[in-house]
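User: Structure tokens for this complex, please. No commentary.
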Amino acid sequence: MAILSKEDAKKILEKVISFSKADGIEANLNGNDGGNIRYARNSVSTSGEDSNVSLGVQSYYGKKSGAATINEFDDASLEKVVRRAEELARLAPENPEFQEPLGPQTYGAEPKTFIESTAKITPDYRAQAAADSINPASAKDITAAGYLEDSRGFNSMMNSKGLFAYNKSTSVDFTVTMRSSDGTGSGWVARNFNDVSKLNTGEASKIAIDKALQSRNAKAIEPGKYTVILEPNAASDLISLMLNMNARQADEGRSFLSKKGGGTKLGEKIVDERVTIYTDPWNEEVPTANWTGGGLARKKMDLIKDGVVSNLIYDRYWASQKNVEATPFPGNRIMLGGNASIEDMIKDTKKGVLVTRFWYIRAVDPQTLLYTGLTRDSTFYIENGKIKHPIKNFRFNESPIIMLNNLETLGKPMRVASGGGPGGGGASLIPAMKIRDFTFSSLSDAV
Amino acid sequence: MKRRDFIQLSGMGLGSLMLPLSSLGNPVAAEALLDVPLLVGEKKQLADVALNTARSGGATYADVRIGRYLNQFLNTRETRVQNIVNTESFGVGIRVINKGTWGFASTNDVTADGIKKATEKALAIAKANSKFQKEPVKLAPVQGYGEVTWKTPIQKNAFEVPVSEKVELLLSANAAAQKGGASFASSNLFQVNEQKYFASTDGSYIDQDIHRIWPTFTVSMIDRASGKFKTRDAMSAPMGMGYEYLIPKAEDKLSTPTGMILYRNSYDIIEDAVTAAKQAKEMITAKSVEPGKYDLVLEPNHLGLTIHESVGHPLELDRILGYEANYAGTSFASIEKLKSGTFNYGSKQVNIFADKTQAGSLGAVGFDDEGVKAKRWDLIKDGILVNFEAIRDQVHMLGQNESHGCCYAQSWSDVQFQRMPNVSLAPGKDPYSIDQMIKDVEKGIYIAGRGSYSIDQQRYNFQFGGTVFYEIKDGKIAGMLNDVAYQSNTQEFWNSCVKICDEKDYRLFGSFFDGKGQPSQVSAVSHGSSTARFNGVNVINTGRTI
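Assistant:
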């Protein structure tokens, strides 16, 4: 039941709309089948599956609206949920920010978000994927703790103004932490795909095992400003923090994109001119739905072009206040990179630090986008073009804006999970990057 | 349109559909939150279906949780209501030990047939996973308690208070802040009720009714000319209480040398909103801190989070054993350090205890989610590490044979696992007030409220900010400071604790949505303390220009 075809979803939604007696109605029908397996201490600890389909209905009278949901789909249930939404809409106060549903939109070609092989993942596949990760670890006296999560689902919507949208998608996310038996080394790897045939948990795990072995007995070096090479996951952890480019907050004066004296930084250069970040639902590596939850058509759109803020995100209400077009919320983020491999960047570095990933990143100052956090699971010191030795983890205090003004080199982009892991906010394509003067403010003994 | 008319309102617009509701439950009308879908006798009959099916299917142990989880979240901004969400989630989770291995299954089909099928699924999962099991599950013994009940001792059920009255209070707080000069004000009220029925093959049938509440706000001040903006969050704490927390009582108000009023077991949201506007305004022009070593005077609503991160988490036994290695991390606190009996976690003043019975706390229950009676135990005594936090299937690894009773699942559909109990710092034994503490400090900073917080995956190195910062100079408060964060190492920090105020200053801080596990589950936990002084802590300046 969880994955309805476009035709089946449309039939249910048409029925829902036909029951409406309000000024207007909008309905969202979504479903998801998910599965996961978790292991630790080289043994599976939990595994499970879930399945869920739900229909959400919003009815409105003027600027008064009400919403209700249901997970039964016979005619009587569909009518019941519509009547419930209407009853709630009648009782609601006027919402000055309410926007009537959109009319029909042009969405363009369907992005390749659904991959059959991912949709067919079984419990046996997950068990094997875990075994492929645990076995090479055990063989080298390494302790594996990992998590694999996969999902297949669909989203659809229809409203009384004639809009209909449908998308189905798949994804698989894998992370594993490998720890050396003496507790002094730790490695980590993450993989995120919408096509599971690209995932090999055994090969990925070997990278983490090697890092666990190489990072043993790390030495402490003095905190301070260092040239860093950030692997794509580490880079993405920080880049994603600057991409909530909310126009309303900027206009209200409470964003890093607000300008002294009023106004916003739209059209201003805020980072190095080699930085270009855009969104594109049809990108083959990180395809995403070509419409937003509200039905707005997504498009290929620059967020930062040649270092300049090229778009802020206006929701429909704020767009109407500012007399601009509403901005579809991006479903993915793609940052242009270069051709340099991480090895090339290391060769080119006289003195620096290679970072596998960051951890526990928290905002310190929203005004400057200053964040703090720590390196984790393999940090290395680079000297004269070579990895010299593993180093103890650092705490950093840095702003992605300052960091992207100190850009040295961009590497090859890689698909990474947005929003910090499985079930997060889709995927991004982010390059490894070399940054000068990155601020490490203290040492951590954590392995 | 009168506000009274939208008491039943369950959603105000598309916003309500955008929330990640699947993890909370299905939206319902406010009045449905007061329904009683099943009587205790009916729950017992259904629970017995699970237990009997498990036994006849070969299980050596089984427990069943029939749960109804209710949430109501109210969100406002300035003069308008942004969202009202009521959700209900009802179902049953069954856990069995079969062939020495755990199996778990859940269903929202709360009928004899649905429960039987789910139990059979749990048995099958246990059997399948037993292939991977290295050692059979070993449970610490627990007595069967028969048919018992427990309820959070609330005075006023928040779900019985009309939504209009609650919205009115939030909008009044926003108005008070704006009248005080705030540029923006938003406020929220979170209310949770867990109605859970637990039964196990050990002979317990436990019916519990748990309540939690959290009013909070953010007041913002914007200075267009300088381009600066500052925010001040509420000084409330999430509590294991009813709506009585929002009815201010004079005896719960604590005055401080900064002029700011702080709150114990009841909260004056309007008074605090007025103070917030005043402080946010002062922050715009407050001086930036000079980095260096300071004596820190940490207020309980701030110190609670430091306790949470640097004591609560590192003493979780499942972390220590490596079960959370891929996500939350492991811990510097090893079994060897515990068994040595000499690991000085903190100075002699530091006595930290776990307590699942603490009145008004978020973690207070009668019994945990595997039928273990709630209790209090010491974690750090006179500065020495003396115990961890453990549940039935892991406590034997400490050489102990009694669970600490800190097993929890966020809903019927999630499997229960080890979660942090309330972890609190005992107040100082000698009479000592906050006024005296400030008088005794030559060069220091007084920090109140939660702020930015970050700690490494083994819980050594941390950095904390706060809500408000005041400079202390020669025993006196010398104005507000900006750009303050302190960095320390857990053991070094707790060993720098030199003084703790007495019990008159003791109050609770809480974390309402503490995340752990993969897939992630939230839990709520409180941390009590009195204001405490830490000498010579490293303070950094977080000011930057972009």
